[in-house]
Amino acid sequence: MAKKPAVSKPAPERGAEHVYRMLRQAILCMELRPGSDLDELEISSRYAVSRTPVREALIRLTAEGLVQAVRGRGSRVAAMNLFDLRDFFESLDLLQRAQTTLAALRRSDEELREIEAAERDFETAAAGRDVDALTEMNFRFHLAISQAAHSRHLHHGYERALIEGMRVGHVSFIEHDGTHSRLQEHLDRTIADHREMVSFIRDQDTEGAERVATRHVELFRNRIVTTVLSPDATRRVQILN
Fold first, then answer.
1. What are the domain boundaries of the chain?
2. HTH gntR-type domain location, by residue (predicted)?
3. pLDDT in tens, 105-137
4. Rounded to two decimals, what is the model's pTM?
């Protein structure tokens, strides 16, 4: 009688990385709602791993601001308050202007190529209208710019702001008010901004880079106001904690 093949178990590092990626995606796409509890036993059972990689994944997500540790209760998905976004957009505006400007000043040729590749990936996602891919590729594009800025402390703050923006941005794509033309207009303007950022960074035009970075945050802010913050959208999404 033939022996059954052994079931391969992921190495601890590999298992933690897998759990991290799956939980992160579930949080960003709102499958796991803000404020919901994260049970380590349930997660370890779902992904067929021990509790150690689950804890490692939760620690990473906590560091990114997507998970909150609750004393005596374990962990839960970080809350979102869509009616308290002023601080978020103020921070995003300052950080995005700084990092885009510094990237234009300090980027290397290799980093420029990475930024250009990330911009192309976003356009591909936009053509496919894949919401998950859109938010992820937008994050990677701006993160590539931030890495080219070579400012460690600013990069840390900007990355946190971008991750928080991914959750809000995901909702804005879902709640695009059902009008195809308006969604396409937003995507077209986003792509135009991205292309200009790449151009100014390529030419090392710091003033132009800062100008388009400011305009890009305003575009995002306006979209949130017209989609996510509308009363009907808030009732449908039900993500306030």
1. 12-77, 86-237
2. 13-80
3. 999 999 999 999 999 999 999 998 888 889 999
4. 0.80
DSSP of the chain: -PPPPPPPPPPHHHHHHHHHHHHHHHHHTTSS-TT-EE-HHHHHHHTT--HHHHHHHHHHHHHTTSEEEETTTEEEEPP--TT--HHHHHHHHHHHHHHHHHHHHH--HHHHHHHHHHHHHHHHHHHHT-HHHHHHHHHHHHHHHHHHHT-HHHHHHHHHHHHHHHHHHHHHHHTSTT-HHHHHHHHHHHHHHHHHHHHHHHHT-HHHHHHHHHHHHHHHHHHHHHTTTSHHHHHHH----
- Computed from CA positions of residues 170, 212, 118, 140, in that sequence, does the dihedral angle turn out positive or negative? negative
Q: Tell me the pLDDT band of 179, cut-offs 50, 70 and 90.
A: low
Residue linked to tokens 């695009």: 176
Question: Distance of alpha carbon 7 from its chain centroid, rounded?
Answer: 34
**From CA 61, how far away is CA 89, in angstroms rounded?**
22
CATH of domain 12-77: 1.10.10.10
Sheet with strand 74-77: strands edge to edge: 37-38, 74-77, 67-70
Q: pLDDT digits over 205-218, tens only?
A: 999 999 999 999 99
